[in-house]
Structures are given as C-alpha cells and as structure tokens.
Amino acid sequence: MELVYTIADLQARLSQWVKQGKTVGLVPTMGALHEGHASLVCRSVAENDVTVVSVFVNPTQFNDPSDLAKYPRTLDADSALLEACRATLAFVPSVVEMYPTPDTRRFSYAPIDTVMEGKYRPGHFNGVCQIVSKLFDAVHPDRAYFGEKDFQQLAVIRAMVKQLDYPIEIVGCPIVREVDGLAMSSRNARLSPEERENALRISQTLFESRTFAASHTVSQTCRFVEDAVAAAPGLRLEYFELVDGDTLQPIANRRDTSYAVGCIAVFCGDVRLIDNIKY
Q1: 131 contact partners, CB below 8 Å, separation of at least 6
Q2: At CA 218, angle to CA 215 and CA 219, rounded to 5?
Q3: In angstroms, rounded to a whole number, what is the distance separating the alpha carbons of residues 190 and 198?
Q4: Which domain does 239 fall in, by range?
Q5: 3-class DSSP state for residue 106?
Q6: 3-state class of 42 per DSSP?
Q7: Is residue 242 part of a domain?
Q8: What sign does the dihedral 134-135-140-144 (CA atoms) show?
Q9: Would you state the pLDDT for residue 92?
Q10: DSSP assignment of 132-194, as one string?
Q11: Same structural domain for residues 105 and 165?
C-alpha cells in the first residue's frame, strides 16, 4: 500500500489503472480506524480492482472546535490496518490541499438533513457534502463505501449523488459492534474505562427497545428509551427518534412504514456517541 498526499499524485496513480479498465472503490474516513472501517475497506477490496482510502479529519463538518481538536489522529496505526486489509492507496491530504480556498458551496436536502444530526449539529452535513464531493471529484470512484452507523449521513450522501448526478454506486455497510454490543466508533478511544462501561448501556437500550416496540406504540417506545438512558450513570440523551428509514422523518405509528429505524445520540461524559437500530 502506498500513501499519497496530494490530489495530483493521487490522480497520476489512478489514471494508469483506469486506462487499464480497472474499477475503483473509495472509502472516505477521518482516520482513527477500527474494525468497522476495516469491514468497509475489505468489502471494497473484494468488489473492486483498486481501493482508495482517504484519511482526513475534515474541519468543515465540525460545529464544535473543541471536538475537532480532540478528534483522534493515529496515522501509523491506520496505515498498518489498511496494509492488513490490502488497500491500494491511502490518500492523506492536508487541510490546505483539500481547501486551498474557502469552500462556500451550500448543500441542502431538506427534510432529510434538517432533523436529528442536522438539527443538533448545524452545518455538519454541509461540511460532509463539501468534503465527500471533493473526494468524489478527485478519485472518480465506481463505488464508495459508508457505514450504516452514520445512518443519516448515508441518506444525505445518497441525496447529494442523485442531485449532482455522480455515476457512483453508494454502498452502505452494516454497523460493526464490539463483542459486548457497543457500536465501534473512533470516538470510543476517548472514553475512560468507566465511561466505556457506561456507554454500553446505549446499545443495550436499543436492543431492548426493539423487543419492547413489538407490543407498544411509538410514543411508548420513545419514552422507554428516554427513561432508560436517563437512569443510566454518566449518560445524557441528546435525541432519540423513531423514523422512516427512507425519509428520516419521525413516525407516529409503526403502520406508517415498513422500514422503521431508531436513531440515537448520547453524551457519555463529554464524548458524543451515535447509534441506530432497525425495527
């Protein structure tokens, strides 16, 4: 595997493979890679001739400067993981490389991007679309891979691809969990041992709510989750929504959709964690 740092070098290396008719997969990441990322990379390697993994902590998608400053940066470990997954190239650009001038573009996909993460992290999805579109323009992949843990992000990216008419297949990949059920996240590295134990209650609550929902209303299920998180030590609920998996709009009744998804954001100490579950 090779590390490249500029768009020019990236495209020079890709051009030779594209001329040979080889397919290209892209896995956009912000680094601090774990087995969840590895599952995306391995799938891309299995389905494409060439796999590019971007490692870039994108400043435009952070609405909290302290969150950006604290985001883990572990390039040596990331490189080892990507090598083991047999990625072809790791693209590791600087901020100046990706943003030589301020990106003033505005992306809007209401109502998909105005609820949940869009409501509580204003500007977040605009930054996501800025960087993902830049990566698409640099790589021109045949397929791009994203984890379903960022369920709303995946929906927004699909909307952007449709609007901008990118000839790219967007591949959503299942959530990868620790043995005890906690959704894998780069932010988990910031949890203390006690917080890590407390955070487990998030996924436990979601699993329990799926059973609860089978015999209760949507409003009762939401209250069940809210009460369970409130009773858990060290956790503070930001939101829980039961939504239609296609529109991401809250549902009032399970009969309103055949594709119900519960999406949650919780602060564990000062670390913000998200998760979701299909009902």
Answers
A1: 28, 56, 58, 60, 61, 98
A2: 115
A3: 13
A4: 186-278
A5: coil
A6: helix
A7: yes
A8: negative
A9: 98
A10: HHHHHHHH--SEEEEETTSHHHHHHHHHHHHHHT---EEEEE---B-TTSPBP-GGGGG--HH
A11: yes
Catalytic, out of 34, 37, 140, 216:
37
Q: How many independent structural domains does the chain possess?
A: 2
Q: Are 155 and 41 found together in one domain? A: yes
Query: Does the pTM of the predicted model rise above 0.85?
Result: yes
The answer to whether the CB of 271 falls within 8 A of the CB of 253 is no
Mean pLDDT by 10 residues, the chain (279 residues): 97 97 98 97 98 98 91 95 98 98 97 97 97 98 98 98 98 98 96 98 98 96 98 98 96 93 98 97
Tell me which residue has tokens 């990566």.
135
User: What is the token pair recorded at 141?
Assistant: 């992949």
Place of tokens 């000839």: 167
216 is catalytic: no
Contacts of 260 (CB under 8 A, 6+ apart): 213, 242, 243, 244, 245, 251, 254, 278, 279
| Domain CATH code at residue 44 | 3.40.50.620
Residues 232, 239: contact at Cβ < 8 Å? no
